[in-house]
User: Fold this.
Amino acid sequence: MIEKTRGIVVNTIKYSESSLVVKVYTEAFGMRSYLVRSVRKRNPKTPLNLFSPLSILDMVVYEKAQQGLQNVKEIKPAYHFTSIPYEMAKITIASFLNELLFRVIKEEEVNIPLFDFLYKSIITLDTLTHDYQNFHIWFMLRLSSFLGFEPSDNYLPPQNIFDMQEGRYTALNLPEALGIYPPLSGLFFQLSQSSLFDENWEIDRSQRQELLDKLLQYYEFHLPGFGEMKSLNILREVLS
Assistant:
């Protein structure tokens, strides 16, 4: 059946000499893998840069339920990036978020709220002009709510130590590997309660790196098999 949908590029794999298998999180079907033919040859009908990290697409596809690899009839940009492919810091953040989504989104079911969050967040990152170095921290916190382990909002000193296993704040002392302690827990709470990204958050480089480390641990607690992010070292280097 021929269907129309928007989609967000999550991963690409070379297939044969001229084609790609593109993993796309679609608005209409959830996660899908599509075979895009002849995209890696000279003067392709579909430009290869259309499949860069987090690209947003308009697609006409041949949808077949229960089929692992789907086929594409037509494909074009649904949104034209103005900065992500051209600024090193944004390229690095986009690559990190791209890998994150590849690791955490497994569902093939439709999830419109999740798609809307991703769509709006990507456009926000593209349109930001300054002070976006904390974007990935905010994004991970917001994404956790769609994955089923959103941090509780019960922060109230002395109940201000975040228990990463329970996803709640507590006044009880925890092992360092299990808890986020003040003052970092205050920043963690502030960002987790913000539905929109704020360029004016005052977070220094050391705090940003520590927040990222704790967030990755938090994801590991709640997503078995999450694994080590390959893009992490480059992200640290570029945003240092």
Remarks:
- The longest helix spans residues 205-222.
